[in-house]
Amino acid sequence: MSRPTERVDVLLAELRRRGQRITTGRRAIAEVLVGADNLSAEEIVAAVQDDHPDLAASTVYRTLETLEEAGLIEHVHLGHGPARWQLANKPFHHLVCEGCGMVQLVPRSLFDELRARVVLEFGFEIAFQHFATVGRCAHCRD
To answer: What one-character DSSP code corresponds to residue 132?
Structure first.
């Protein structure tokens, strides 16, 4: 497993390769994204502004958009509430309990058979990483 600093450098190198400038703000945002999973944009703004209080929220939002367009991060909807952001290379899907709010990560491969069947029968490719599967955990079902 690579260290967080190496993962930040990989993100920034890919941005640079795409002709983007690497700024202090972009580095700070990348560090927050590498350091935690499933943060809302507001949480990312707060975390970045802890160390860089002069960094505008609009800069964070634009950087998130740039990183997503580059395929480096993705947002996911975990039920109700704001979108959450994570690195794009996470091989997990989210199961969210609508009773208690528990989030369970499961391998994306768990949905491979369903994904293939939907493509075969309907010609439609499901983007499982974009939305969580909502249901009820064992505790809330009882």
So the answer is: P
> Which residues in the chain belong to E strands, given as ranges?
39-40, 73-76, 84-87, 92-97, 103-107, 133-135
Could you tell me the domains of the chain? Answer: 4-87 (1.10.10.10), 92-141 (3.30.1490.190)
Mean pLDDT of the chain: 89
Distance between CA atoms of residues 10 and 53, nearest Å: 25
Residues 57/44, Cβ–Cβ less than 8 Å: no
Query: How far apart are alpha carbons 108 and 95 in whole angstroms?
Result: 11
What's the predicted TM-score (pTM) here? 0.79
Confidence of residue 62 (pLDDT cuts 50, 70, 90): very high
CA–CA separation, 24 and 52 (whole Å): 9
pLDDT at 1: 46
